[in-house]
Structure formats: C-alpha cells, structure tokens
Amino acid sequence: MENLQNEKGVAPGAGTLPMDSERTGRSRFSRSQILILIAGCCSSLFINMAEASVPLILPRTIIVKEIPYAYIGLIFAMFSISIILFEPFQAKIIPFLGTRTSFCISSFVGAACYLSYAVLNIAEETAAFVSCATILRFVEGFVYATLSTSSNVITCLAFPEHATIAFGILECFVGIGYTVGPIIGGALYAAGGFSAACAFIGLSLLLTGFLGYFFLVQITGINLRPKPRETKRALTDRIFLGVAFVNFSGGMFWGVLGTSLEPYLASVEGLIFAAAFLAYAGTAPIFGWIFLKFHVDYRWAVLAPLGVAICCMFLGPIPSFTFIPPRLLWLVTLLLFIMNVFIAFGSVLVFDTLKERAIACGLEENVATYALILAVFFTTIYIGDALGAIIGSVVYFEYGFVRIAEIATGLLFAFSIIAALILLVDCGRLREPAHRMFPSLIKASSDREAQAEETSHLIKPGYPTRDNLGELPDYDEATTMQQPTGVFFNQSNNDYGSIR
User: CA-to-CA distance for 252 and 390, rounded, in angstroms?
Assistant: First the structure.
C-alpha cells in the first residue's frame, strides 16, 4: 500500500479505505474494498473450517494413540476459556495494534499452531501429546478471537454505508467453513492421517496472513480521542444489553446442541449439520441486505430465541409430542434448518442494533467503535456456548437427549421472556410512579440528572443527554455533526482511525 501520510504524519483521509481514484466506471466499489472483502472472507472461511475440523480429527487421533478419552474435555475446554478471556480485550488490542497487524499476527500464529499439530502427531507419550495439545488449543482461542474480530472490523470500515451487509457476507463464510470443514478435514484425515489435515489448515491460514499483509490497510485508534463516557453509556444502554442477551441465548443453544445432538444422531450427524450451517450461510447476507434497505425494529430480535424454542419442542421428541417417532431424520434436518434461519436473523439484527445504539450513544464509526461492538458480539456468543456445552454434556450423559430437548426449550422460552422484558419495558418510565410510592428510597429522574451534572467533571455544554423514553438520546446539533463516511477525502483523524 502507498504511504498516504502528509507532512504532519497523518493521512489526508485518515481511516478512509477506498479512494475515489480507485473506482472504475462499472463498479460501485473500489479495488481496495474488493481486496479487503476477499481477505475477510478467506479468514472467516479458513478459521471456521479449522474450528469445525478439529473436533472431528483430534478425538480420533487421541483414541488411536490410546490416550485416555477424559483428556478431550480438558483440551477442548482450553479453547473456550481462551476465547472468553481474550475476546473482551479485542476492543483494546485491535485499535492499539491496528487492523492489519492484528489480522496478520493472528493468521500467522494460527498457521504455526496447526503446523505444530502436524508435527505433534509423532509424539507417542500421553503427557507430551496432551500438554502440547492443551497449550495449542489455548493459543487457538486467542487466534480465533483476534482473527474473527479484526477481519470483521476492517471489512465494516471498508464498507461504512453497507456494514451490515458486509457482516452478513462474512457470516455466510462462517457457515460455509463449518459446512465444508468436516468434509475436507475428514477426507484428508482418511487419506493422509492427522498430520495431513492439520497441515492443510495451517497452510490455509498462512495464505490468509499473506492476503492480509498485501491487501489490507493498517488502521489504528491511537490518534482517536478516548470517549469513556460514551462507551459507558453504550455498555449500559438498555437496548444494547437486550440484544446482547439475545446473542447470548443463541450461543447457549449451539453449546447445548453441539454436545448432545452429535452423539444422539451418531453417524448421520455430518449431513444434518451441513444442512443447518448452509441455512445460516445462505440467509445471513440476505438478512444483512434486508436490514440495510428496510428499517427493522430491534424488538424483533426476540423472535430469534422464541423461534428456536418452538423448534426445540419437536426435537427429541419431548413427552408432549410422543406421536413423533424418535430420530426422525428428515424432521430433525428441517428443524435445524429453520433454527439456523432464526439464528442468522438474530445474529445480523443484533449486530445492526449494536452498531446503531453505539452511534446513538455518541460513539463514532471508527476502528475503536467497531472493535467494541464486535468484542461484545463474540464475547456474549462464546460465554453462552461454553455454558451450553457444560449443560449439554452433563445432562446428556446422565439423562439422554429427550431431557436435553426439554431443558433447551425451557431455557430458550425463559430467555425470550427476559429479552422481551429488557427490550420492551423502559424502566425510566417506571421511576416516577416508584418515586411517588417510595420517595425516600427512589429519586425522581430530574433529581438524578441534576445530581449527575453537578458531580460529573465530564459534562460539557452541548453534551448529549438521554431522553425520558429511553430510546435514542437527544443531541445538540453541533454534537451530531459528523464527517461523511465513505470514500471522500478531508476527513478528520477521528472518523475511522489513522492509516499507517
């Protein structure tokens, strides 16, 4: 990439990825945008192929080496723990290191992990194999968190007016990766063993790292003004928290089903899960386009856990539906397909709502804001996934899949009710009646706002204040003036970040 910095060391269009001069007469998007999208799609495809392949090939290798099967739980737990630990910090790591640096480091480290797996296959001793595999899975969690978040951040910045569609396209390749990963990994394992499958994944991530190095632009948040008050406002916003909870419920669903439905369906589960992930891959970009073209209210996010809960009622089957034969594969396939359509709807709507609420709370569309949004998005998913995996594995081996279906149904209905309460009930409206009933315990809204203005050193003239309805905050006109996003020059350093 050319050095676009001026005499002050700042790019003239700081953080602006595509340039007008790069556009062609026939294309709506510049060459830079297209290359960034290719790199982002490759990263989403290969890292999720890896994540879908390892649960297929690693347990088989452990069995072949006659290593106690109990170690599998420890090895795979390290991946989830690592993601939960590192994902919240992506909101700080990516703006500090920059988008391209984060992308390339995570790609190259991931390639080193899987190439190390290929060499690790020669280890015969249990202690050597288990200890190295555990460490590598922990590092994989860091790689997955950083690469997934950085690729989404850079792609959303490249398409500021189409960020939701860009997110949907990357989620499409997430679904494709989960679909083809077990197929390719299983074929390579059958042909060349554990080392061949891991070497293919490692080389794919190595290619991804080189694509990122040559195709991506380095954007950092070092020159951005810190906005702690706006960040706190977003993280405590009722709607922001409500849709994040919806995301958590989707992660828990896959955690529960991922550890129970696979052993329940035994040898045919690969085909069924492929259909499910293809449903996610096919509908995620469609929902991204719909949410861009039409305003979809955030309250519709409640449909995601509710729809999945209704589908879960027919899985198992639960006692209420004893007329359904057990393991009716066409019905299970259809239900998983419908479930993933609901999950794709919820995931894309959650991202779109998180973005809109963050901007409404005073944050700008820059590298730090997108890193924060996506860190919240992925953190809530994987916390739910980890908890769901624990519930699913424990309950399945104790009581079987029928009880799992009952628990999943009950949890998702409960989550739907909680999400509806968070998104539909504005506690701000209840403060005045509560103050009249308990004046000594609950302060009036006007008293709280006055006290906040008196005690806060961050309040400035024209600073945004939340209205009484709990919807979009009201801003003074000077506060809401933003530079136009997209492909134009003369943007300030604080629009997206700084190109280096």
Answer: 10
